[in-house]
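Aim 2 progress update. The chain analyzed this quarter is reproduced below.
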Amino acid sequence: MHESSVDERGGGRIAGRAFAARTVENAGHRRGGNVRHLLVLVGVVAIALPMFASAQNGAGALGPVNALGQEVERIPPPTGPAPRLPDGTIDLDGLWAGGGSLFDIAAGLPKGETLPLLPASIELMKFRAENPWNDPHLWCLPMGVPRTTPYPFRFLPNHTHKPATHMFIVHEGNIHSYRQIFMDGRGHPEFVDPSWYGHSIGSWENKDTLVIDTIGFNDKFWFDFKGTPHTEQLHTIERWTRPDLGHLVNAVTIDDPGAYSRPFTVSFEARLNPPGDEIMEYICQENNQYGVAGGHPNPFQ
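Predicted structure tokens:
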């Protein structure tokens, strides 16, 4: 459960993070002068998250959002050229929101395309639609790849005069999840124990694009809230680019012959959070009962 707040299943904190607003975790708490209003009704989630999902797929900037009498203003991302490191490599530094699937991974497909689901995957999605509370992410487990949350993330490259040997992607959501990407030229091992984030190796393409190749996933996480599935045969290749100062684009090729008839590519946009925002402490524990301990009802009952 979130420390001193409701978790995302009960509606707490989602709206503030989804719109990159300065909010507060609970009454009287201040963090760097940024005030974050805690929105606690499930109805707020129903409004806020679809808007966020639309925004992360390039639907345009969001204006004021009014909930419970609290107006949250989303600051437009900054404009200008993307920064670069001294050697000319694009700099991915910043606090980002978006950049992956949330409600529906199919939203990242090119216009007119549909997911090439195998019949067994279609049946599994039907079952999950009838049992949405089975989503492991709702029980504080990692979201996998390329799923994201309304909470921010940050790349942690090694900014030195030497090439980075490792890179990490640190997520605020769900027990401070992180991914490790090996940047030292190694390949994937012959045998990989299945895990939530898999085994990732990375490289730079023309100093403009970070390419992350990942195998060794388990089959537990869902690609989105709709329950879009995958198997342990999943292989992803992410291509992260920064077209300008305020945006990242993540184009992900998904190859999983256990769940899909062919590989496909989805693309998602992340927006830079305002200056002064940082990753906050997020405490989430497996089998958290939707904030019941905090007096909030389970929305799925």
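The longest strand covers residues 235-244. Residues 77-288 form one domain. These observations will guide the mutagenesis experiments scheduled for the next reporting period.
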